[in-house]
C-alpha cells in the first residue's frame, strides 16, 4: 500500500509563465551588474545597487521606478500609471507600469530597465 495518489505517467512539463519569461530576459539584460531578486507585492523585484529598479508582475508587465520629472513623457511612450494591488490606489509619480505587449523588443526592455536604474540612483 502507498501513501497518496499515484501518478499515471510522467510528470507534466513545466511551462514558464509570462512573469518567468520576462524575468529571464531581465536577468540577461542585467548581467554584470550587482542585482538581487526579491519577491514582493505579487511580483519579482530586481534590486540594482540595493535600490528597487523594476519589478515583474504576474502577467509579464513591468513596474518601473521613474524620475517624477519624466513621468508625463514616459506615459506618452506607452507606460501607464502604476496602481496598488487593488488597482484603484495610484502609486504616485515615481512608479509606472509598462504593459507586457510594449516589452517584446529587447531594446524597449533595455530602455525601461535603464530608466528604473537611473531613477534609483
Question: Tally of extended strands?
Answer: 6
Number of helices: 3
Q: Biggest sheet: strands side by side, in what order?
A: 1-2-3-4-6-5
Mean pLDDT: 91
Describe this structure in words.
- This protein has 121 residues and is of the alpha+beta class.
- 26% of the residues lie in helices and 23% in strands.
- The protein contains three helices and six strands, in the order αββββαββα.
- It has a six-stranded antiparallel β-sheet with strand order 1-2-3-4-6-5.
- A hairpin with a 5-residue loop joins strand 3 and strand 4.
Strand-helix topology:
Elements: H1 18-29, E1 35-40, E2 43-48, E3 51-56, E4 62-65, H2 71-76, E5 80-81, E6 95-98, H3 106-119
Antiparallel strand pairs: 1-2, 2-3, 3-4, 4-6, 5-6
Which labels suit this protein?
Yope Regulator, Chain: A; 3 helices; 23% strand; 6 strands; six-stranded antiparallel β-sheet; 121 residues; alpha+beta; 26% helix
Amino acid at each position: 500500500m502507498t501513501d497518496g495518489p499515484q501518478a499515471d505517467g510522467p510528470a507534466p512539463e513545466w511551462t514558464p509563465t509570462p512573469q518567468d519569461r520576462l524575468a529571464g530576459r531581465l536577468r540577461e539584460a542585467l548581467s554584470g551588474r550587482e542585482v538581487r531578486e526579491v519577491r514582493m507585492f505579487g511580483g519579482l523585484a530586481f534590486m540594482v545597487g540595493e535600490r528597487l529598479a523594476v519589478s515583474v508582475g504576474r502577467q509579464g508587465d513591468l513596474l518601473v521606478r521613474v524620475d517624477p520629472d519624466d513621468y508625463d513623457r514616459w506615459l506618452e511612450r506607452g507606460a501607464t500609471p502604476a496602481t496598488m494591488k487593488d488597482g484603484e490606489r495610484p502609486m504616485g509619480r515615481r512608479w509606472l507600469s509598462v504593459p507586457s505587449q510594449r516589452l517584446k523588443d529587447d531594446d524597449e526592455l533595455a530602455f525601461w530597465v535603464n530608466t528604473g536604474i537611473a531613477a534609483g540612483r
